[in-house]
Design brief:
alpha/beta, Rossmann fold, 7-stranded parallel beta sheet, 15% strand, globular
């Protein structure tokens, strides 16, 4: 359907060189978008861009940047916009997690998580705003988490940052609605990625507890994020803004 066609559009996906970020980037490219993949690991980011082009035939650009640095954010957005001539969608997906009891966190670790997960999304959104306003609109999609809704005893900083992502989403949606910029969030469930492999190694019994609660009966794959990404980047979601959409196989709906 044309409502979901992204041909001629450009999307930036931060943290798009692996996991759910790459799953979203591949989905966007399959729908016809050119994709700028932004990440800190130069080789991993280049490999992801090459994979996108090979699998989808769409154009992809690898941009190496540290999104906690304002100058890197500005450069990354300018590089993507300069290459493709426009910026239609921004996916703020980059993030980190540090798992330990809250009483054991250092202030430096707390700030590291907040900067990587929240401040980077704010800076990138600020940077794309002039592009989208000039074009007459755009889409910003922030990656939250189930911990945007639920607490986590072993990831207090991460959960706090993801709660903040939902409030940032709502605030930007209200501020920029008049510019026809829709701002929404995706709340991923338990996806089988490098980040959750580490979680399963660090938190005893996590795999079994998660699997017993997922109505779908399996952990998600990165490709399971593609449909929601395309929907929120496409004209199909033009009247949807300020929403946090779970993609969790029924996890949040389960008692």
């Amino acid at each position: 359907m044309s409502l979901f066609d992204l041909s001629g559009k450009t999307a930036i996906v931060t943290g798009g060189n692996g996991g759910i970020g790459l799953g979203m980037a591949l989905g966007l490219a399959e729908a016809g978008a050119s994709v700028a993949v932004v990440g800190r690991d130069a080789e991993k980011t280049r490999r992801a861009a090459a994979e996108i082009e090979e699998k989808t035939g769409s154009k992809a650009l690898a941009v190496v940047a540290d999104l906690c640095k304002p100058e890197d954010v500005e450069r990354a957005v300018a590089e993507a916009g300069g290459r493709f001539g426009r910026i239609d969608a921004l996916f703020n997906n980059a993030g980190i997690n540090i798992r330990r009891a809250p009483q054991d966190f250092t202030l430096e670790e707390w700030n590291e998580v907040m900067n990587a997960n929240v401040t980077s999304a704010f800076l990138a959104s600020q940077a794309v705003y002039p592009w989208m306003k000039r074009q007459g609109g755009g889409k910003i999609v922030n990656t939250g988490s189930m911990t945007s809704v639920l607490g986590s005893s072993f990831a207090a900083a991460y959960a706090t940052s993801k709660g903040a992502i939902v409030q940032l989403t709502k605030s930007l949606a209200l501020a920029w609605a008049a510019d026809d910029i829709q701002v929404n969030a995706i709340l991923p469930g338990w996806f089988d990625t490098e980040m959750t492999i580490a979680a399963r190694q660090q938190v005893p019994g996590l795999h079994e507890r998660v699997l017993s609660r997922i109505a779908k009966g399996r952990w998600a794959k990165p490709a399971d994020m593609a449909g929601a990404a395309v929907f929120l980047a496409s004209p199909a979601s033009d009247y949807i803004t300020g929403v946090a959409l779970p993609v969790d196989g029924g996890y949040l709906a389960t008692l």
